[in-house]
Write a structure and sequence with these properties.
This protein is α+β, with helices and mostly antiparallel strands. The chain has helices spanning about 1-15, 40-60, 60-65; strands at about 20-25, 30-35.
Length: about 70
């Protein structure tokens, strides 16, 4: 499951043109150091990354929806 979550976040960032400089996937949260294009604000980038990845993760892993 962790590998799939990592892939989903990497795909989402790639679609947005966001480069993950460094990232750590912990048990219940994620830390990421990102390189974001100036045309995209930090808040917009995070909103899109969190929203898209959350939706895809919940569709693929419905058991997580009950916990979070």
């Amino acid at each position: 499951m962790r590998d799939r979550i990592r892939d989903i976040i990497m795909q989402t960032c790639a679609k947005l043109g966001v480069h993950i400089v460094k990232g750590v996937l912990a048990r219940d949260h994620i830390h990421m150091f990102l390189a974001i294009q100036p045309k995209l604000s930090l808040s917009d980038a995070m909103q899109r990354i969190k929203g898209r990845s959350s939706r895809r993760i919940q569709v693929e892993f419905p058991e997580l929806r009950k916990r979070y």
